Amino acid sequence: MKKTLLIFSLLLTMPMVAQKHYPAFKAGEWLKFRIHYGFLNASYATLQLTSDTIDSIPVYHVVGRGKTTGFASIFFKVDDTYESYFGRHDGKPYRFIRKINEGGYTKDIEIDFHYDQEKAILKDNKNGKQFDIPVQDDIQDLLSASYFLRNRYKLDEFKKGQSIDLDMLYDDDGVFRFKLKYLGKEVIRTKFGKVECLKFRPLVQSGRVFKEQESLTLWVSNDLNKIPIRIKADLAVGSLKADLDGYNGLRNQFKIIMKKK
Q1: CA 105 to chain centre
Q2: How far is CA 22 from CA 17, 219, 226, in A?
Q3: CA-to-CA distance for 70 and 194, rounded, in angstroms?
Q4: Structure confidence by residue, pLDDT tens digits, 230-255
Q5: What's the CA gap between 140 and 211, in Å, rounded?
Q6: 157 vs 134: CA distance, rounded Å
Q7: Of 143, 152, 164, whose CA–CA distance to 94 is shortest?
Q8: Nearest to 225 by CA among 254, 249, 248
Q9: What is the pTM of this model?
Q10: Measuring CA to CA, which residue among 113, 23, 98 is closest to residue 62?
């Protein structure tokens, strides 16, 4: 349960094939996900996108929140908030915030990106520490990566088995190389009906949380939105599944093959 929101965050990084001339999102987009751990309805997570400015730079502000609910919260309480401010025009992150409480394990991290100095300043508010981390213009944070990729890539540029690499900064873990492999199309059943999806597999670190390097499977809608629809993960202990449970404010039509009766 402690890693539920980390896994959910990985879900956010995978939409990647919208046409450049058709933006995949707009301010006001709201997504809700239901996360199951084994047979338990473990938690809910939401993503809310709004417009804002940082130092006169027009940005999008996305807030991701996740909490355990019901029976699962008796065993392990999670209350996590992730925030990202990224450029409306260039998609680059300018500020990232992570405040989590997972069964008493807490973090309070803020990262400000200074591209003119080729560094990011990380503030660990919990421990009163500050670090400078070297970064380049192509860096992304855990949340901004999703929105950046949703607008960047075209489906006809990818074939089954093809991968994309992305440099990502994840608080005090530093910069790491995130790799995502395209597996093809698949129609899956959802609470909204049948949805044609693009299927992906991110390569993750095995051992501590996941059973193997390729333990995650991800699905996104094969339309102009490229919103996350489902994630499945085989963990070191048990399994996890997350499904889209609600949405609002999509920029484009959500394509459903057959609405559920």
Answers
A1: 21
A2: 11, 20, 11
A3: 28
A4: 988 876 556 778 999 999 999 999 99
A5: 26
A6: 31
A7: 143
A8: 254
A9: 0.85
A10: 98
